[in-house]
Amino acid sequence: MPSFVRHLLLIVAPLIAAFAILPGVYDNHLLLFNFVIFLILAQGVNIIYGFTGYLPFGYVGFFGAGAYGFAIMVMHFQTPAPLAVLVAGVVGVLLGLLLTPLLRLSGAYFAIANLAAALAVLHFVANPALESITKGPYGVALNGTFNPTLAYVGAVIILALTLGIVVFLRNSSFGMALQAVREDAVSAAMAGVNVVKMRVIAWLASALVAGLAGGVFAWYVSVFYPDNVFSNDFSIFAIVFALFGGVATIMGPIVGVLILYGVYNLIGFTTPQYFQLIYGVLIMALVLFLPAGLVSLATRRGWNVP
Amino acid sequence: MLKTAIAALGLGMAMGMSLASPVLAADAPSEIKLGTLYASSGRYASISMPVHAGLKLWVEQKNAEGGVYVKAFDKKIPIKLIAYDDQSNTATASTLYNQLITQDKVDLFVADSGSVLTAPAVTIARDHKMFLFDQTGTGGSFFSKDNPYIALMSDPVSTIWPKPIADFLTKDGPALGIKRVAILYSTNEFTGTQANSLRKFIKDANAPIEIVYDQGVPTETTNYTVILNNIRAAKPDAVIHLGYAPNDIAFLRNVQDVGIKFNMLFCIYPGLETELLEKNVGAKGLQHVFTYVPPSEMAYPVNFGMNIADYRKAWDKKYSDGKIEFGFNAVAGYTTALVIEKTLSVATSLDQMELRKAVFSLSGKLKTLDGTFALDETGGQIGELTPLGQLELNDHGHIKFVAVYPHEVATGKPVYPRP
Lengths: 306, 419
Known about the structure:
The complex is a heterodimer of chains A (306) and B (419). Chain A has helices spanning 3-21, 29-52, 60-77, 81-98, 107-125, 131-134, 148-171, 173-183, 185-190, 195-221, 226-229, 232-245, 251-270, 275-289, 296-299; strands at residues 140-141, 223-224.
């Protein structure tokens, strides 16, 4: 069986099926929804960081832009929510295109510039002068489209799409070429890889999934402020979850989200007073002992982790 | 067939009897579950912790007395406080709010402080048909006629906060020589909405007041020196700065650093979190600053709960380490608790719509240390208004409040222009 199909059947299908069934057996649907959102965002970070080496500290910019793209379509054009989610994805891609010049930077310079870009988008959206379009800092209330059940279904579909992209990158010559660019762009270019084109496509794919996630998030929560959807916690969590599991794999970010976000909520529900202590120790241990993520436990032994 | 009919008849009679019979104290739950969130860290910790501490103080006090009186069961029942730490993170807050409803099955659903952390609760409450006791989330977008599952407990909605400032400027201002006003605000819901309302109130008043400077700046702004020079260049008679506590601290420090003396300077938080501002700006830096007068300085007559003096004593006893500042937010948490207590004493069941009905029945009648509790039809708080005051130094060099507007609550005359 080709590895592409095997990964779809053994990883993507069970995960999607699990998240489709779980709302029937567990009542805290918002917790499940947040798991799905962080799975999407962690895989989005995986696409751009794992396969190209660009660490997007301002990844939330696409997410927030998507959320506001959704809100504007619903508020001003009375667009049906599923269509508005698609527009949210387009908004993410357009913002990605606008920020393409950032790809000229690398390492910490890119990370900082990306963070600054996300803040710029936040302040643009939250500008009181744009109140008639974005509601500025005063927040949006999208009561007309409020439908948590459908929004959850939408999120699971976007997760499937995102995982499909990652499976493709993991199993295609395109993904291999991206990793070659990540390791040594000059060598890859000499081998005939169109470096700029490759990076831009990965960047836009990453922006697309974050924009879609932002759109479906706006659909689910329906009442939010710029601070809610541009909170840098989204970027930090997505990056930490992806790194915890291990990037440039399909399984790494999934394992990272399920374990780390699971622990995060478990501590939050049981011993909130020790929250920062336990979580901080966990992340420090990861950085010190498993800098390549949990999957490195397997790869060190020569096991192939999809 | 006959058996089925008899069974149905029996079931119907049983149901009828259960509906007709009064609720017995024996049916009462062993505890009333009150679920809420707080932020022990992050951006909203400074407003969230005093509110939560006020609520917690009430729970402990009531439980020491055997619980709160619950009319639905005609007996006192202890309160079980279920509180999670959202760390100022809205995604975490969403999950925890849902946890309170779906897993902990709380009877009373209380939001965290401030609009940003309240926003996720508004949707969740509506989705689960739970009535939300909104403590200090003043966002106008929360309140609409088609959402019956919310009411604001302890703060007026953002849109009416600046009414006393606008009235003072437009009614008393011209006689004092105030003709040119500068408005500087942080671009967030709480202060941005107040700026909008202030602008509208001034324009609607048709008074000879001109807004000569009107600028929004990001909430993260910490250096106002260039902005201050721009404001000075506009030659305003009154400067209204609407920002959060960190903004006020930075702004007032910069005013001292630059050495500008505006004839009238208004800031929000010297009144709301006086101890915090005094620590960071110093008493001298707050002298002559106009601000909102908090309930802790007004000594409103109460018809329910502790008055401000007794509450302060109880607060100092419980939080004697001084780690949580006593101020506007400390009063807000206790006010929420009092509304809950009174609601339980009049609601005939713990059904969420019955709780709403009970809360609305208190409107205009309940007088707490925070003033008169009054709701509009959407659940927005329109009572508990904060008068305009001015900070002065007493003989010992300590800060004291002088209420200057409205006249009926004034305790002194405004010092204008600032010496």
